[in-house]
């Protein structure tokens, strides 16, 4: 059985703009529990107060999977890590790391190999003082001199690590080479069988899934991955792609995972709702076109026998027929049931908010689709604390008019209003909001799309705004795209305001 270690909430959250608040992380952790992953890496406890609280909350709440927290190999990190993880008891995993490649040791850590080895062993021993469930990662393992890598792996196993991770931190390796690295460790580290070798592949060359498969063929027992493959830079190994590759090619890949695959699509959609990061349409397994057959010849083959062009069924990944779902006469019960099928388990308060919005939308729009429901949940439920709220907006524009937006907002409970001219209605609206909020943030990206087809479709706007190094995403939807733009911009301002600072040194 290959263990699936999900790091969506830690490495995934390191995707630009993917930062999540505690409530959002908990929501995703519940879905990861349904997916039945073996380990949830919930965050980096020392990185910020927000990370600490999220790891603690998940450790207190989620039953089933082990809960890991990342810690550098220093005592302060490890002590803080356990403070958050202790609530998961024996399911709490301290994941500690230090870089082992010459490049990282020389330029980043400014430490000798002997010092790094010593820090690794001391870190693991410190962690073992709290729990037997300790994982150690040799950061940048793929660019580490092999003999030294084997020495570190052997030493941390002796010190008590039960899992040793061999990450391709910079997404540099290729399958054949990675296979050989794992095989070398299996053959040359005398105590290697006392621990599970784990792999953690980044996707800079688009090879993260292929590399992970090669690694399990060489004897790795754990794969670290993320939903939708989100993560630092080009992302991490995509959980859904790895799991479905193993399942679909069981004929030549004699491995299994515990993942409940029909929860993959709900997990992917939920992550998109939470982060606003949309999946490319041609993405394997969870892209909108992954099961769409366009060419006539393919459609003909499918009608004769599905196996002509379908190597796995849409149902196996949780894709249910997404035709028209609900209309204005649909009741609360049907609404709740469909939301649950889509991966949105809402409490009563949020369900009421979402249902009200659904009724309002169903009055405007005859047909309400799954995508509309995702947008409603993103808009009504995935809200952060609101320092800024939109009260009213009025816009005038046209071929002969200078666009003017009058915006009224509630800021810290007080109503404020202003008007601005702009180069078009969106520009005028965003300028007015910027003036009222006194924000210094720069607009990095603005995208508008329609959630479904038809001129009465919900318009969905995504904006990215940045301040210093930090970039956040905001989303808003409405059948009026100017209102959607205002909501998205205000959502981003709230996220920026409530984002917790992280400032982490290498060790
Ligand atoms: O990519 C990496 O090396 C990591 C480690 C900290 C596991 O994320
Ligand atoms: Zn990583």
How are the SSEs placed, and which strands pair?
Layout: E1 3-6, H1 22-35, E2 39-43, H2 49-61, E3 66-72, H3 75-85, E4 92-99, H4 102-109, H5 113-128, E5 134-139, H6 146-159, E6 163-168, H7 175-188, E7 196-201, H8 208-217, E8 222-225, H9 239-248, H10 264-275, H11 296-304, H12 332-341, H13 348-364, H14 370-380, E9 388-398, E10 401-411, E11 414-422, H15 425-437, E12 442-450, E13 459-467, E14 470-478, H16 481-498
Parallel strand pairs: 1-2, 1-8, 2-3, 3-4, 4-5, 5-6, 6-7, 7-8
Antiparallel strand pairs: 9-10, 10-11, 12-13, 13-14
Helix pairs in contact: 1-2, 1-10, 2-3, 5-6, 6-7, 7-8, 8-9, 10-14, 13-14, 15-16
The structure holds 3-methyl-2-oxobutanoic acid and zinc ion.
Characterization of the model:
With 507 residues, this protein is of the alpha/beta class. It has 3 domains: 3-275, Aldolase class I (TIM Barrel, Alpha-Beta Barrel), CATH 3.20.20; 296-363, no CATH class; 388-502, 2-Layer Sandwich (Double Stranded RNA Binding Domain), CATH 3.30.160. Helices cover 39% and strands 21% of the residues. It is built from 16 helices and 14 strands. It has helices at residues 22-35, 49-61, 75-85, 102-109, 113-128, 146-159, 175-188, 208-217, 239-248, 264-275, 296-304, 332-341, 348-364, 370-380, 425-437, 481-498, and strands spanning 3-6, 39-43, 66-72, 92-99, 134-139, 163-168, 196-201, 222-225, 388-398, 401-411, 414-422, 442-450, 459-467, 470-478. The strands form 3 sheets. It has an 8-stranded parallel beta barrel with strand order 1-2-3-4-5-6-7-8, surrounded by 7 helices. Strand 10 (401-411) and strand 11 form a beta hairpin. Helix 5 packs parallel to helix 6 (146-159), helix 6 crosses helix 7 and helix 13 (348-364) crosses helix 14 (370-380). The mean pLDDT is 92. The site of zinc ion (ZN) has 6 residues, from loops. One of its GO terms (biological process) is L-leucine biosynthetic process. Its EC number is 2.3.3.13. This is 2-isopropylmalate synthase. It catalyses: 3-methyl-2-oxobutanoate + acetyl-CoA + H2O = (2S)-2-isopropylmalate + CoA + H(+). Pathway: Amino-acid biosynthesis; L-leucine biosynthesis; L-leucine from 3-methyl-2-oxobutanoate: step 1/4.
């Amino acid at each position: 059985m290959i263990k699936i270690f999900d790091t969506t909430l830690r490495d995934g959250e390191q995707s630009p703009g993917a930062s999540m608040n505690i409530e959002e992380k908990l929501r995703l952790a519940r879905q990861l529990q349904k997916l039945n992953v073996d380990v949830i890496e919930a965050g980096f406890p020392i990185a910020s107060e927000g990370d600490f609280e999220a790891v603690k909350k998940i450790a207190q709440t989620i039953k089933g999977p082990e809960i890991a927290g990342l810690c550098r190999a220093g005592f302060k990190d490890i002590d803080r890590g356990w403070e958050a993880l202790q609530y998961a008891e024996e399911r709490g995993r301290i994941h500690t790391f230090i870089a082992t490649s010459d490049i990282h040791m020389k330029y980043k850590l400014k430490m000798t190999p002997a010092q790094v080895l010593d820090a690794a062993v001391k870190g693991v021993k410190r962690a073992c003082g709290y729990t037997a469930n300790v994982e150690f990662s040799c950061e940048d393992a793929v660019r580490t001199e092999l003999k030294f890598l084997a020495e570190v792996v052997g030493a941390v196993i002796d010190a008590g690590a039960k899992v040793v991770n061999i990450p391709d931190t910079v997404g540099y390796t290729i399958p054949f080479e990675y296979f050989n690295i794992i095989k070398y460790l299996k053959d040359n580290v005398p105590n290697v069988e006392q621990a599970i070798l784990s792999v953690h592949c980044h996707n800079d060359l688009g090879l993260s899934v292929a590399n992970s498969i090669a690694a399990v063929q060489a004897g790795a027992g754990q794969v670290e991955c993320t939903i939708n493959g989100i993560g630092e830079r080009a992302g991490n190994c995509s959980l859904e792609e790895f799991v479905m590759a193993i399942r679909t090619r069981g004929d030549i890949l004699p491995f299994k995972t515990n993942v409940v695959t029909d929860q993959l699509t709900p997990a992917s959609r939920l992550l998109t709702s939470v982060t606003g990061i949309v999946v490319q349409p041609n993405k394997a397994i969870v892209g909108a076109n992954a099961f769409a057959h366009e060419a006539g010849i393919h459609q003909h083959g499918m009608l004769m026998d599905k196996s002509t062009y379908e190597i796995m069924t849409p149902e196996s990944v949780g894709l249910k027929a997404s035709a028209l779902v609900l209309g204005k006469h649909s009741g609360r019960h049907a609404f709740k049931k469909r939301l649950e099928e889509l991966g949105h388990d809402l409490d009563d308060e949020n369900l009421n908010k979402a249902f009200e919005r659904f009724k309002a939308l169903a009055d405007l729009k005859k047909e309400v689709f799954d995508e509309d429901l995702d947008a409603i949940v993103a808009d009504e439920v995935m809200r952060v604390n609101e320092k800024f709220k939109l009260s009213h907006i009025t816009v005038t524009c046209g071929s002969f008019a200078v666009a003017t937006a009058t915006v009224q907002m509630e800021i810290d409970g007080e109503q404020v209003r202003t008007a601005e001219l702009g180069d078009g209605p969106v520009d005028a609206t965003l300028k007015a909001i910027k003036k009222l909020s006194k924000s210094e943030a720069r607009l990095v990206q603005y995208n508008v799309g329609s959630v479904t087809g038809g001129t009465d479709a919900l318009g969905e706007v995504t904006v990215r705004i940045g301040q210093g190094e930090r970039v956040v995403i905001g989303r808003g939807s409405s059948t009026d795209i100017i209102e959607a733009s205002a909501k998205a911009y205000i959502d981003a301002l709230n996220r920026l305001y409530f984002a917790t600072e992280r400032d982490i040194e290498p060790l």
